[in-house]
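Subject: sequence -> structure tokens, single chain

Hey, anyone have a minute? Need the predicted structure for the following. Not urgent.
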Amino acid sequence: MKRSVYLLTTLLVLTLLSACVAGAPATESSATAESAADSSCAVGFRLFVHSGGESCVPENPQRIVTLQDQNALLPLLELAFKPVGSAGQLLEDGGFRFRRVEGFDTEGIEFVGAIVEPNLESIALLQPDLIIGPPFQSDIYDSLSAIAPTVLIDVHDRPLDEALMDFAMLVNAEEQAATLKAEYEANVAELLAALGDRREQITISVITPGWESGQFYNEATGQATGTVMQALGLLRPAPEAGPDAITDLRSIETLPEHDADVMIIISYTGEDQDPLFDEFFNSPILNNLGVAQAEQIYVFDGLRMVGAGWSKMNTFIDELERVLLNPDLNIDVVQEPASQASTTAEGSDTTCADGERLFADAHIVEPVCVPVTAQRIITLDPFYSLQMGVQLGLPIIASATVDGSDTFPASLTPEETAGITAVGSFDTPNLEVLAGLNADLIIGDAYFYAEQVDLLNQIAPTVLINTPEWKQWIYTIAAAAGVPERAEDGFAEYEERIAEIQPRLRDVEVSFVRLIPGGFQVYLDGPSAYAPFSVLAEAGVKRTAFETTEDDTVLLRPDFETLPNLTGDILFYVVGGANDPVADNALVEEVTANPIWQQLPAVQAGEVYRLENTHWMGFGGLRSAHAILDDIEMYLAD
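Reply:
Had a minute. Here:
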């Protein structure tokens, strides 16, 4: 993913003194009469970016063949879309089964061979208009593409909830997927709230026996189980923790490294995939572990909770809840990483002092010992770090600003920033001042400060965040400060409000444009959407085809000649660039008087609304998200 509009707006701030701050990736393209993403596809097709490259796929596919059952057929069935054919598991008696799809109607779905070697002739006979497969079938990609447009979707090396949205986009089922995602995220939030302090006190190992005697492996970081474990942020033994966790087959002799308060063993015996399960489960090495002596090894049925489906993740959450919330659970089987020697991403040992804990997260530059609960925090940037930190109620004592002055983002009230010391510009903070503030935690954006992390760590423990996702940024800041429940509570309220608004939305398409001196900016609805526009999408607001993309393009820069592509029933606009109300209003008068603007459908219908800049172009977290939902309710909800 390319760098964020966060940087784009930062440059505008420095050159134009704009009020814009924070948020979206800065991938741009020049606007044409049709979206750049679709310009190479025939009518009725759209460009789709996937693990195998780029493919022109039908806008409304009707005859899909899937080359995987649990990882392609299942997610489509969950979206109420039935493919015409699918690969599956070939049985010894010559029959077949579609794995992990119990409870779904598979009648009429043709079997097109084993997942390891699908039958190309059988696929061709079904006359598919789209084929969906996994990345490991890239060796037959050209042959498949000769039959029908083919996409390869990876559900292993990234969070499953992200991968599942690809399936939804392919079959135009984003609304159904959004509902399923909201249910899953609510279940995650509910378990996190119920766990409370236990989340930092229980270490959990999740493993599966291998295919040969004396072997096992960690559960994948993607898939249902891995995605849930990552979302919950539960403590893991060192070989299972962090972005570089060992997932290869391991010798059973290394099992002691996986000792934990709770061990979950995923079993696939129901599909005859674990012929050596009993041998593994009865191994003396396993049964000599502390977790075995505490009788806290649990066998989970992989058939019920492994596979590319929201239902699988929810089932895994239910089973975790049953185990982890047991009041009789012994949570002192092993010493937790926060108070013992723990392996960092580089492989060295880090011992945290009393009153500290090791904070190791996939979205920071490197693990670091931080206070159990921070009391004196410095934020190195006035964008996401400062705004989100203040909104979470973190004890921020100092922050860098946009231009080195003592002016903080307009989204924050004077009362909220009254006790915060300005420590220079975000690109050149005053390190001498930082060193004299006696901070116990520093938080900032990895893009700006990664090369200075060693120096900053000499001043105070430093957490540098490297995710462009606004939600994950909030979760990471809250967890670093030792108050993860504040993020969970905030998002629970946000999700409730989304669920309340969605049924009341008017059935209209919305266009959005930013007026700037010399042109326009159109922020797109797509995988890398700038945060306010991802909020629009989550709320169920429909954008026009011109304003929707399948790739990482974030914004277009149309001129007056291409402005007629803004065909929405309703037109929102913001004004920015001069940071001067007089100049901004003059720009509005100039643009709105232009005959091309006057011919836009929304203008003709009297459905044009100017929105306030602060939260749209200076997005800073949940407060901004709620302000955007306010606008949605005012103009788009019944």
